[in-house]
Fold each of these.
Amino acid sequence: MGNPGNGNGNVQRKLGVTDPISLGGPTDFDRIKTQELEKYLCDAGLYESQEEAVSREEVLGRLDQIVKNWVKTVSHKRGFNEQLVHEANAKIFTFGSYRLGV
C-alpha cells in the first residue's frame, strides 16, 4: 500500500489508520491559545517540578531493574542454560501522557 502524494510529486508519509483532519500548521490564534493554556497550567501548579521529574525517572529506573531481574529469575527457574539466562532481558516502554511529556 503506497503513501498518497500531495499532487506536486512529493510523497507524504501517512501516520495512523485514518487521514489527518488537516495538514496545516497552527494559526496565530492557535499559538495564542496554547500560550494562554500553558500559563494557566503553570499558574495552577499542574506542571511537575524538576524534583518530581527526577523522582519519576528514578522510580522508572528501579522498576526497570526489577523487571530485568524477574526475567532472569524466571528464565533460570524454567531451566534455561546460564548463557541464555545471562542474555535474557526486558524493556519497559512508557506511553500515554508520560510519553507525551504532559
Amino acid sequence: MTGPVGVGFVGVGVISDTYLENLGSYPDVRVVILGDLDVDRAKAQAEKHGVAEWGTTDDVLAHPDVDVVVNLTIPAVHVEISSRAVAAGKHVWTEKPLGLDRESTAELLRQADAAGVRIGSAPDTLLGPGFQTAKRAIQSGVIGEPMFASTAFQTVGPDLWHPSPAFLFAQGAGPLLDMGPYYFSGLVSLFGSVDRVAAVGRKKLEERTIQAGPNAGTVFPVEVPTTMQVITAFEAGQQAASLLSFDSALERHGVFEVHGTEGSIVLPDPNQFEGRIAYVKARKSISDGNWGEQEWIEIEQEGTLTGRGLGLLDMVRAIAEDRPHVATGELGYHVLDVMLSAQESAASGEFVKVASTVAPVPTVPVDFDPFVATL
C-alpha cells in the first residue's frame, strides 16, 4: 500500500462524526466516499466533513479508489456488509461487535484470508496512549505478576439520551455486546486468551421508553439482559470480574483495575484513548490498626493522543510494513466468543469453555504518530 489509502464508509450514523474528524487528520488515509441507506444523510455528512462523493453501499463497494471499507452499520448487518466488502476485494474496518454469531463471523474471517484482505475490528481504544502506557507499565513489573482484574460499566441506560436506542436493547447488543468489547478486548490484550467463562444476567424492564430526541415517548421492547456479571478465567492463569449494566442509578464508567503480586494499578476507561494511570504498592505492615491513606504513584501518559480510526490507521500501516495489526479480526472474534459464552453461561448456570484462542496482542510503539505521513 502507498498512501494516502482510500477509505469508504458504509453507514454514517452518530458515531461517523468522530471517525470522519479523526481520519481527516491522518495523512496516510483519505476518505473518498460515504454510503448509507439514507443517501441524503450520506450527502449531508459528506458536505459537513469535506468528502467529495456520497451514495449507496453499492457505490462505496464499487469505487475504484476505495481500498478499505469502514463498516459503521448496525450490529445485525456487520457480517453481511463486511462480507460484501471482502468479496469486492476491500480491506475492512468494522465497528464492534465483529458479528453476532460464531458461524457467520468465522466464515467472514475465512473469506478475508482467502481473498488476501485484512479485517480490523473495533474497539481501537486499546491502541490509545492511555491503555498502552498502562500496558507497558504492567509489562515492566510495577505490580509484580498480574493475578486478577476488576472492571465495571454501570449506567441507567442509553434510552435516557440516545435518539434511537432500540437497537442497543435488541439481540446482539445490550450492555454485554455493546460495551463488553471495550473491557474484554482490554483484558485479552493484557492477559491473552480466555479459557472459560461464568455469568449471570437479568433485566429490569421488559419495555423502555425513548427519553430524548424526535422519538421521545416511543416505547420499544427489551430483548436481552440489561445487567450482566461475568467471570473470566484466562489460559495464563489470571481471572477477572466484569459488571456491565444499563440498570444502575449509580453511574460508574470505565472502572478497570489490575491487581498483582506486588501492587494494584488503575487503567483508563477502555472506552477512551486517555485517562489516569496510577498504582499502589502492597502494604508491608499495619501499625496499631491505623490503615491510613495508601500512596498512589502516578504514571505519565506516553504517546500521541488521537481517537477512533486509530485502529484503521494501524491496519493500513501494518499492511504496508507486512506486520500484524493490533485490533485484528481474530481478536474481535475471540472477544465475541467470550461474550457469547457469557450469554450461554447465564442461560445454563454453568461455566462455558471458550473454544477460540488469539495470538498475543502487539504493544503499540511509543513513537507511533498518526499525524505523520509514512506511506
